[in-house]
Amino acid sequence: MLKGLPLSIWHLLPQKVLFICMVSLLIGACASKQDMREPESDVQAYRSDHAEALHYFDIDARAVVGTGATIIERNLLHALTSLRLIAATPATRSGIWPEIMPALQQLSNVIPGAALYIQPDGNYYSVEQGFTGLNLSDRPYFTPLFNDVEIHGALIYSRSTGKKSLLMAVPSIENGEVTGAVALSIFLDDFQQLVSDAMQLEPEYLWYVLNEEGNTVLHPRADFVFLNPAEQGSPSMIEAVEMITSGDRGYTSYSFAGRNTHILYQKIPLNNWRMVLGKIGEPTEEDFLPEAYEVLADIKSIIHKKLKNMDNDLDKMIQSFQGKIPARHIVRNSFQEFYKNNPYVVSCALIDPSGTIVYAEPSDFHPSEGKNISDQENFFMMQKNRAPMLSSSFLAIEGFDAVSLQYPLIDSEGDFHGSVSILIRPDIMVEELVAPIIAETLFEPWIMEPDGRILFDKSYGGTGRMLYIDYLYEEMRTFRQLGDNIASNKSGQGDYVHHKPESDESVVKLAIWDTMELHNTQWRIIVSYPPYD
What CATH number does domain 202-283 carry, 3.40.50.300, 3.30.450.20, 3.10.180.10, 3.40.50.2300? Predict the structure, then answer.
């Protein structure tokens, strides 16, 4: 432990202080090792009680849990010991920032985080910014810290960086009074990556760390950090969290988000946290899952049926045109009839081979006639394939997001005379079709194209957005990970963290999905909901 301390810290210490600190460190190291030794009787009982449970794991689960706990504790002890040494220097006791900063800089180079010197009034300096102009006196840890209590892992959003962090802090004492404090706000993203890299777990395994209150401190899926899993509603999860946080080590399991998870846990003595290793096991039937699949099937069926009916009507109209552009009155009458019989159609347009809109109905769209759309991908694909198609979502020249159902005009000689395009606003169509299905339920449907374009979504207001590039989803990592899974698979099940902007709360939701397909175009139909209400 001593070997890893930054040299600049030692140079700052007077010989007397150095001697005292070294002796204290040696005593502390011995005590720490002694504390971490497991009494032989406990180990034997642990192995005996949980030998049968361990058959769920195809790795040495006890060793993995122990390794993870050791990595975390050693890094936190390194930070704590370094902070104690820095706090003991004359520069820190006197609050001389230029002399404090080099040692803090060395510490933040070893353990990624914001290294701070905090003044008694709450104002503070950081290595990155110098004097920040921000104040920490309203933080829950501030009063204990300046009453000479060390902070061993407070969960915070760093005010200097905005990142999720855990705070290690040590007061600095001069003549029996706290004259300031030094702290390291450890970036949790970087810390969890360090642990994940060391553990090298297969995809069917997961790990996380809970504090005494059951809040998630570390988790490879960053959106889960700061969540309390017991507050997500699963009865077995509530029992498991209570067991984990009250015991030193053991085995348990819980059912959540459609899977049973087998858990091995171990106490991290430094701050009474729990290191948890999980093996994702057999599927389980959640309270609402059967109904969710029924809702999903109904939504997929009604959307496909409505699109297929429009497709059949369009096919009949094209056949009546006999592959050519008919007289104006025939086209207008046909379009008006089609529009009347298909309430989710926004407009009908006949486009010539050059990409010019020749006719458009209803009359609201007459101004579109004469406009050229040859630069649109949909027109290019029609010219290239000359086959019926359902387009991807695009911004129509009328100013709204739409999809087009198109048929080519090909005569008996095989010559291409243009196409007929039917514009549909999927958001309006889907909302009206699914409203009766989901009325008075907790289910939230949304529809996404495989490229990430969201055709319909009311829960986030995401209709028309691109999942992978829109700022709305930038920090919603689990939602984007779920999107990757949905894009890559025609059907499946997954979970994500849903952030409630109106309450600043977060809840884990389950999502199931299937695929609706027409003319080789796919829509992913998704139903999401909180697994436990």
Answer: 3.30.450.20
Q: Does domain 290-426 have CATH number 3.30.450.20?
A: yes
C-alpha distances in angstroms, 218 versus 127, 185, 284, 507?
A: 24, 14, 26, 17
Q: Which of the given ranges, 44-48, 384-388, 441-445, has the highest pLDDT on average?
A: 384-388
CA distances from 123 to 79, 134, 374 (A): 22, 6, 62
* Helical pair 61-87 and 188-199, crossing angle rounded to 10 deg: 140
Q: Does 2-37+60-189 carry CATH code 3.50.50.60?
A: no
| Residue whose pair of structure tokens reads 């009982």 in the numeric block | 45
Distance CA 391, CA 317 (A): 19
Give the separation between CA 259 and CA 281, rounded to whole angstroms: 6
- Beta carbons within 10 angstroms of residue 517's beta carbon: 12
Locate the domains of the chain by residue range: 2-37+60-189, 202-283, 290-426, 433-529
Q: How many other C-beta atoms lie within 10 A of the C-beta of residue 505?
A: 11
Residue 43 clears pLDDT 80, i.e. is over it: no
Give residue 515's pLDDT: 97
In this structure, what token pair is assigned to residue 341?
A: 């019989």
* Topology at the third CATH level for domain 433-529: Beta-Lactamase (3.30.450)
| Helix 289-321 vs helix 328-341: crossing angle, to nearest 10 | 160
* Other beta carbons less than 10 A from residue 518's beta carbon: 17
